[in-house]
Amino acid sequence: MRRLGLIQGAVASLALVGWLPLAQADTLDVVKDRGYVQCGVTTGFAGFSTPDDKGQWHGLDIDLCRAVAAAVLGDAGKFKAVPLNSQQRFTALQSGEIDLLARNTSVTQRRDTALGAIHAGINFYDGQGFLVPKELGVTSAKELDGATICMQTGTSNENTMADWARANNIKYKPVVIEQFSEVVNAFAAGRCDVFSTDASGLASIRISKLKNPEDYVVLPEIISKEPLGPFVRQGDDVWLNAVKWSLMAMIEAEELGVTSANVEQQLKSSSPSIQRLLGVVPGAGKNLRLDDKWAYNIVRQVGNYGESYERNVGMGSPLKIPRGLNALWTKGGLMYALPIR
Ligand SMILES: N[C@@H](CCC(=O)N[C@@H](CS)C(=O)NCC(=O)O)C(=O)O
């Protein structure tokens, strides 16, 4: 009885903290039982996470949701996209509404420590920039003194903007709005001179949300590091590994030249690295508590990182963002898979 009381007491005090009880849960088991991954994404952001007219979601972040579903459940389709604005995203993770946050979220020390969340890798290296109407005649961010700047509530962009302005002796008037569509409308209607967020976001907004994209220009300055990546809850290491290594497998597959198109032939490869990646070697999924074919399922159903990049945000997409920092480390970029062995 006394013991039970102690446990109840402990549970009650954990409940006060909010996110802790869920942090104790084993999300991998929860997801396997439920049969699908609940993936927190944007409310609709071309290139990263956006639904088509049939309600099917696409994007670089969606491919991460799909990769985790393929690794854990053997089927990339077994995920549910949970649309979240910038402000809602960490609460949704803390409360257990989602298993995984895959939503153009910058990793910062505060987010990785103080919110009960922990990042599981980087799937897009970005930086904050500025989008302006051409008619403003501005060619550099240094000319923005006195400008009105639109941003979304709950983004890292607000603080970064304030820091940069202070350091550069620039005065500006922030217009900060919670819903994405409303910030975009405010900008399109000229309620602010500038939209400031991640450069990828600016490219996406310009191409998919503004009537005449050619009337707008992204300024050359990038004022911060915005490493974007998935987050899970702290204290759930098995699940953290499932997400982290799903992303690694996509990058490793690109490094090894394994694609969705050649993966069947690659099963016969004599390369030990490829054999391990594709689960030809028995026991390849054991330590992750996944099926040996976990990475094979990712590559076959989702593709490697380069394929996902090109089709969603790269040259095969309307965004046409060059690989830049997101190229493989062997090609001058920062994408580097930790060894799968
Ligand atoms: N990387 C920044 C910004 C990410 C962010 O939330 N950007 C906004 C503005 S472009 C967005 O994606 N909004 C989409 C939505 O709320 O659905 C962060 O993590 O705070």
Task: Describe the structure in your own words.
With 341 residues, the chain is of the alpha/beta class. Helices cover 38% and strands 16% of the residues. A five-stranded mixed β-sheet has the order 10-9-11-8-12. It has a three-stranded parallel β-sheet with strand order 4-1-5, sandwiched between helices. Helix 7 (157-167) links the parallel strand 9 (147-152) and strand 10 (172-177). The chain is globular, with a radius of gyration of 21 Å. The site of glutathione (GSH) has 18 residues, from strand 11 and strand 13.
Concise structural overview:
The chain is 38% helix and 16% strand.
Which properties best describe this structure?
341 residues; alpha/beta; 14 strands; disordered N terminus
- The percentage of residues in β strands lies in 15-25%
Number of strands: 14
Mean pLDDT: 94
Give the terminus-to-terminus CA distance.
Answer: 47 Å
Main β-sheet: number of strands, strand sense, barrel status?
5 strands, mixed
Radius of gyration, in angstroms, nearest whole number: 21 Å
Return the string of H and E elements: HHHEEEHEHEHEEEEHEHEHEEEHHHHH
- Which structural class should the secondary elements be placed in? alpha/beta
Helical residue percent?
Answer: 25-40%
Extract low-pLDDT stretches. 1-23
Bound molecules: glutathione
Strand arrangement, largest sheet? 10-9-11-8-12
Number of helices: 14
Morphology: globular
List the helices and strands and how they pair.
Elements: H1 2-17, H2 20-24, H3 27-34, E1 37-41, E2 50-51, E3 57-58, H4 60-73, E4 79-83, H5 89-95, E5 100-101, H6 109-113, E6 117-119, E7 124-126, E8 128-133, E9 147-152, H7 157-167, E10 172-177, H8 180-188, E11 194-198, H9 199-208, E12 216-218, E13 226-228, E14 231-233, H10 237-256, H11 263-266, H12 272-277, H13 294-301, H14 305-312
Parallel strand pairs: 1-4, 1-5, 9-10, 9-11
Antiparallel strand pairs: 2-3, 6-14, 7-13, 8-11, 8-12
Helix pairs in contact: 4-10, 4-13, 10-13
This protein binds glutathione (GSH).
